[in-house]
């Protein structure tokens, strides 16, 4: 390993916030959204932008189940001694070369998986808004059966109007 | 930046090298096999485990298997979604971050660090190029395959990793 | 020496304690200042806004409740209608009471009644007026009130197999209660008329009974 310099981190350069950056922040490229129920079943999936491979419904079901399992295992893989009162969380962010997957687990065990571009800013904000829409248009709908697949027009509509026009 | 552990898996899903910089919190018995489990900083390893209150009866090998299963599933998931030329890079939880690098020969390098660490793909790549290739591949005495988890028991590689990690972090 | 007294005394405190006990057991909650909604002035309307979320949950449960043992969508709408009806009757009294004393008058003609519904009632229930009031072209006795985004339906997505259903049947029941209370027997139904801009648009169809139309024609002539 003699003599090679490691490009561990990009050199620090002052960064100025300009109009271009502000415009860039508003760009929202969300590839897809998946909602997984407590038991690991897929209850909602929707694609918004091109960018990921097209998967069949069956593939999505498998993906949801796999992720549910891996999420549980990653809790156990925690190398640190456990701090009482603060249980380890599972996967929160997964990065690949072409996308970024953010997972948000509600206190009730429902998981929201948001697939975005690798450098999408403000994903926490987006996912919270999605959770808000879910609490409004799914959980307040008397025709929705808990833990069952989500088929709510109002949820679809509001999700689309939140995510789509910000392209 | 803190490194917790480092693992190499060969193309037969076998863990051929693992090194921990922290005492493993979730194990009940140390490795029985002659795997090059580096114990340089694990002076209290057995003692800690004896008083461990963790209910889990997992051994180091079980941990490695879980780790492999996780990265394998995630890698396949990423390939399915992002296409065959996409690569799984890392994931993070609230407590730790896992970095992943896969060579064209299907060797998998996995490193667990704290969550604030930036992407370590380059570091893992350097370990592969400058240490693994130099001291393991080019070493005529090193086994090519690792049946029964023989592992990379190689002093030069071991020392290289140790000094590389302490230099890099 | 104390024994006989002890047996005689408890009667009085028990009587005194009674209201407190009722407060904890009965359905009505007593706030710390011991003033219930019945102690409030009926004219107070400024601070009477309610949480939309809690209404949404309550209404959701009302719909679920009405859904039990129903035979079909018509039956479900009828049940929601029946739930709204008494509310309309009571609101009529309250809203007329709140009108300025000089001009207060029970609507005796159809148009003032409908205006009372689209403005006074709508503002009381939804804090805004209804979006349109029309008379049917085909039938003399039919009037239509449209609401572009009914508050009760805001969070409700009706499943495809029940697409005839509109949960605003509850509001239709309230309107029917008002009409009944004023002496205009009518049948009120809610219909979804989705448009591009207003996917939840609802039209309330008010069909007055023949005797109401007869009286209306008579009053028109008498003017």
UniProtKB/TrEMBL annotation, chain A:
Compartmental location: Endoplasmic reticulum; Golgi apparatus, cis-Golgi network; Golgi apparatus
Gene Ontology biological-process entries: endoplasmic reticulum to Golgi vesicle-mediated transport
Principal location listed in the UniProt entry: endoplasmic reticulum
Pfam family, one: Sybindin
Higher taxonomy: Eukaryota, Fungi, Dikarya, Ascomycota, Pezizomycotina
Family under the similarity heading: Belongs to the TRAPP small subunits family. TRAPPC4 subfamily.
Statement: the UniProt record of this protein carries the keyword Transport: yes
Name assigned to this protein: Trafficking protein particle complex subunit
SUPFAM superfamilies recorded: SNARE-like
Keywords: Endoplasmic reticulum, ER-Golgi transport, Golgi apparatus, Transport
InterPro entries with a match to the protein in the record: Longin-like_dom_sf, TRAPPC
Subunit structure: Part of the multisubunit transport protein particle (TRAPP) complex.
GO cellular component: endoplasmic reticulum; Golgi apparatus; TRAPP complex
Top-level division of the source organism's lineage: Eukaryota
Entry keyword Transport: yes
From TrEMBL, chain B:
A cellular component annotation (GO) from this entry: endoplasmic reticulum
Nucleotide-binding recorded as keyword: no
Gene3D superfamilies: 3.30.450.70
Main subcellular localisation: endoplasmic reticulum
An annotated Gene Ontology molecular function: guanyl-nucleotide exchange factor activity
The entry's keywords: Endoplasmic reticulum, ER-Golgi transport, Golgi apparatus, Transport
Disordered as annotated region, ranges: 25-48
Keyword Zinc-finger: no
Annotated localization: Endoplasmic reticulum; Golgi apparatus, cis-Golgi network
Residue ranges with Polar residues bias: 28-43
Biological process according to GO: endoplasmic reticulum to Golgi vesicle-mediated transport
Similarity comment: family membership: Belongs to the TRAPP small subunits family. BET5 subfamily.
PANTHER family assigned to the protein according to its UniProt record, in alphabetical order: TRAFFICKING PROTEIN PARTICLE COMPLEX SUBUNIT, TRAFFICKING PROTEIN PARTICLE COMPLEX SUBUNIT 1
Protein name, per record: Trafficking protein particle complex subunit
Source organism per UniProt: Xylona heveae (strain CBS 132557 / TC161)
From TrEMBL, chain C:
GO biological process annotation, one example: endoplasmic reticulum to Golgi vesicle-mediated transport
Gene3D superfamilies for this protein: Trafficking protein particle complex subunit 3 (3.30.1380.20)
Keywords of this entry: Endoplasmic reticulum, ER-Golgi transport, Golgi apparatus, Transport
Compartments it resides in: Endoplasmic reticulum; Golgi apparatus, cis-Golgi network
Main localization (coarse): endoplasmic reticulum
Region spans: Disordered: 1-26
InterPro entries in the record: NO_sig/Golgi_transp_ligand-bd, TRAPP-I_su5, TRAPP_component
Gene Ontology CC annotation, any one: TRAPPI protein complex
Domain of life, per lineage: Eukaryota
Compositionally biased intervals (Low complexity): 1-23
Function text: Plays a key role in the late stages of endoplasmic reticulum to Golgi traffic.
Entry similarity comment: Belongs to the TRAPP small subunits family. BET3 subfamily.
Subunit-level organization: Part of the multisubunit TRAPP (transport protein particle) complex.
Protein name as catalogued: Trafficking protein particle complex subunit
Organism: Xylona heveae (strain CBS 132557 / TC161)
């Amino acid at each position: 390993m003699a003599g090679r310099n490691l490009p561990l981190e990009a050199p620090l350069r002052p960064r100025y916030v300009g109009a271009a950056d502000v415009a860039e922040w508003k760009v929202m490229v969300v590839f897809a959204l998946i909602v997984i129920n407590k038991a690991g079943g897929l209850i909602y999936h929707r694609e918004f932008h091109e960018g990921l491979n097209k998967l069949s419904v069956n593939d999505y079901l498998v993906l949801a189940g796999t992720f549910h399992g891996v999420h549980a295992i990653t809790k156990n893989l925690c190398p640190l001694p456990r701090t009482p009162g603060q249980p380890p969380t599972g996967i929160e962010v997964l990065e690949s070369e072409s996308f970024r997957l953010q997972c948000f687990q509600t206190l009730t065990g429902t998981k929201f998986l948001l697939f975005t571009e690798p450098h999408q800013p403000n994903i926490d904000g987006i996912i919270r808004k999605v959770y808000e829409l879910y609490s409004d248009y799914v959980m307040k709908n008397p025709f929705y059966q808990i833990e069952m697949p989500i088929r709510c027009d109002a949820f679809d509509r509001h999700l689309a109007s939140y995510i789509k026009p910000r392209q | 930046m803190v490194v917790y552990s480092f693992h190499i898996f060969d193309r037969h899903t076998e863990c051929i090298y693992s090194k921990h910089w922290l005492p493993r919190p979730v194990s009940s018995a140390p490795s029985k096999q002659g795997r090059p489990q580096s114990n340089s900083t694990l002076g209290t390893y057995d003692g800690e485990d004896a008083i461990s209150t963790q209910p889990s009866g997992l051994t180091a090998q079980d941990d490695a298997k879980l780790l492999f299963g996780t990265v394998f599933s995630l890698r396949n998931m990423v390939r399915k979604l992002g296409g065959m030329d996409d690569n799984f890079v890392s994931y993070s939880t609230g407590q730790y971050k896992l970095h992943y690098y896969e060579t064209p020969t299907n060797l998998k390098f996995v490193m667990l660090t704290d969550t604030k660490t930036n992407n370590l793909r380059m570091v893992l790549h350097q370990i592969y190029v400058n240490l693994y290739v130099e001291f393991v591949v080019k070493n005529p005495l090193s086994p090519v395959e690792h049946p029964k988890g023989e592992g990379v028991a190689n002093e030069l590689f071991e020392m290289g990793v140790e000094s590389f990690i302490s230099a890099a972090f | 020496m104390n024994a006989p007294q002890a047996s005689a005394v408890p009667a009085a405190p028990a009587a005194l304690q009674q209201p407190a006990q009722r407060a904890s057991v009965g359905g009505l909650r007593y706030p710390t200042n011991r003033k219930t909604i019945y102690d409030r002035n009926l004219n107070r309307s400024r601070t009477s806004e309610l949480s939309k979320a809690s209404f949404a949950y309550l209404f959701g449960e009302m719909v679920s409740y009405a859904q039990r043992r129903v035979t079909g969508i018509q039956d479900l709408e009828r049940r929601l209608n029946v739930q709204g009806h008494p509310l309309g009757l009571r609101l009529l009294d309250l809203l007329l009471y709140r009108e300025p004393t000089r001009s207060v008058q029970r609507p005796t003609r159809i148009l003032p009644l409908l205006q009372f519904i689209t403005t006074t009632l709508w503002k009381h229930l939804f804090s805004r007026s209804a979006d349109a009031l029309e008379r049917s072209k085909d039938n003399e006795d039919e009037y239509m009130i449209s609401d572009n985004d009914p508050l009760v339906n805001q969070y409700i997505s009706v499943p495809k197999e029940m697409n005839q259903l509109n949960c605003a049947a509850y509001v239709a029941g309230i309107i029917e209660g008002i009409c009944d209370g004023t002496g205009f027997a009518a049948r009120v139904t809610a219909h979804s008329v989705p448009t591009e801009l207003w996917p939840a648009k609802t039209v309330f169809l008010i069909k007055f009974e023949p005797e109401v139309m007869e009286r209306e024609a008579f009053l028109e002539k008498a003017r």
